[in-house]
Amino acid sequence: xxxxxxxxxxxxxxxxxxxxxxxxxxxxxxxxxxxxxxxxxxxxxxxxxxxxxxxxxxxxxxxxxxxxxxxxxxxxxxxxxxxxxxxxxxxxxxxxxxxxxxxxxxxxxxxxxxxxxxxxxxxxxxxxxxxxxxxxxxxxxxx
Amino acid sequence: xxxxxxxxxxxxxxxxxxxxxxxxxxxxxxxxxxxxxxxxxxxxxxxxxxxxxxxxxxxxxxxxxxxxxxxxxxxxxxxxxxxxxxxxxxxxxxxxxxxxxxxxxxxxxxxxxxxxxxxxxxxxxxxxxxxxxxxxxxxxxxxxxxxxxxxxxxxxxxxxxxxxxxxxxxxxxxxxxxxxxxxxxxxxxxx
Lengths: 143, 191
Description:
- The complex is a heterodimer.
- By secondary structure, chain A is α+β, with helices and mostly antiparallel strands.
- Chain A has helices at about 1-20, 35-45, 50-65, 125-140, and strands spanning about 45-50, 70-75, 80-85, 95-100, 105-115, 120.
- In chain A, strands 1, 2, 3, 4, 5 and 6 form a six-stranded antiparallel sheet that branches.
- In chain A, strand 2 (about 70-75) and strand 3 (about 80-85) form a beta hairpin.
- The chains are: A alpha+beta, B alpha+beta.
- At the A-B interface, helix 3, strand 2 and helix 4 of A face helix 2, helix 3, strand 5, strand 6 and strand 9 of B.
């Protein structure tokens, strides 16, 4: 009987030790995955624009039109961070970070990352809707 | 047999009622313009015939200061200001309601009431025409409210529960723009 107990203890002990061992990081831990590339492609749009300043102001206006509260804006880095409550539900929060980068002299790259309650939004439709509003805002700014 | 079903049916009915209380928000809808977007935009925006954006931004900051706000963040390049003020959120109506519920529940329930609030304003100005002679100022007000403590039977409700709301009272915006137009000696235009 005593031996059986020792046996059980030994097995339990090895199980615990096994639980402590952390899995070794694989070589491709930081390698870009297919899903990442896909996300990046629908989060990014390129516009035929020369003026980065105008693009940034249009991004801010589009976010305000969508009811977002602008939290931070950094002109030199082309960064805008905004958030809004998922009205009428004030417990959920949607956050977005938009970066505006000059790709070439005539082209501007705009990337948006949105989160819903600290979970990244991976639905392409959300980004389509955002860029549709941004296009409208850019059109209004240009005229 | 019939009696056994009754609690199940009641439980189902209650759970369906509860499910109706929480409306899951769909992020897709939150990134779409709604008819209210245009109404809010018109209420929150005014145009000024000026090319001096710096003057307009500093006048806006001064008006916010007059209204008791503290400017927390400003980015001149994109014409951005964020200001907040903290005030009491006590209301007589809520205190009367709290007392009535206390009496009606025979002292078993003390509902938490609003205690403290933080009102925030986010202002963005930008030129709207290529010559830069006309500027648009858009301001958004919202507030965060903290509740006090309470009791539900023997369960203590700790203080600090917070909720937020956008302020969509047109008078508030009119008041701000009236002060701003006085500060810059310019007549504001609506959209």
